[in-house]
Amino acid sequence: xxxxxxxxxxxxxxxxxxxxxxxxxxxxxxxxxxxxxxxxxxxxxxxxxxxxxxxxxxxxxxxxxxxxxxxxxxxxxxxxxxxxxxxxxxxxxxxxxxxxxxxxxxxxxxxxxxxxxxxxxxxxxxxxxxxxxxxxxxxxxxxxxxxxxxxxxxxxxxxxxxxxxxxxxxxxxxxxxxxxxxxxxxxxxxxxxxxxxxxxxxx
Length: 203
Prior knowledge:
Structural class: mainly alpha
CATH superfamily of the largest domain: Iron/manganese superoxide dismutase, C-terminal domain
Shape: globular
Helix content: 40-55%
Oligomer: single chain
C-alpha cells in the first residue's frame, strides 16, 4: 500500500506566500486523496500489486489505464513539489558548482531561468506542472510544462526532474484567486536548490 509522504516543514512555514490554509488543504485533501484513490484502485487491479509508485505509473501509462496513471503520477509530482520548496534560506541559494555552471550554460543566468520558469508556468493552459529537467540525451537543462498528471520522463527517460512547481489551481487559488502569475513570481523564491543539486548528481 502506498502512503502519504511526510512534509519536510510545517503548514505555516511559507506564509504569507502560501497560507496555512492552502498548504493544509493541498496536502491533506488533494495529495492524500490521490494516495487513497490509488490504494483503492490497486486493490481492484491486482496486476499492480507489489509495484513501486514509479513502476505503477509507467505500467498504467503504457497500458492506457488512465485512472491509475493519473493518481500515481499525481503522487509522484506532489512528492517532488514538496521537496522542491523550502522555507530555509540557506537551501534557497544556488551555490557555485556543477549545477550552477550547467544552468548558466543552458539559460545564461539564474535570473533568465527563473523568468522562463515563470513564463512557462503562466502559459501552461489549464491544469499542470512546470519543471526544470536535466535532458541527459542532449546534456542540457530545460524548462518544460506538462498538462494534468503527465510526467516529463514518462515517455523520455532522458529527462530527469530537478524541480517542479504545481500550477493546478488548487495550489494557489485560495491565496491568489486566478492570478497564477503572482503565485509563480512569489513561489520561485522558495525553490530548494539543495534538492535540485542532489537530483542533478543522481541523474
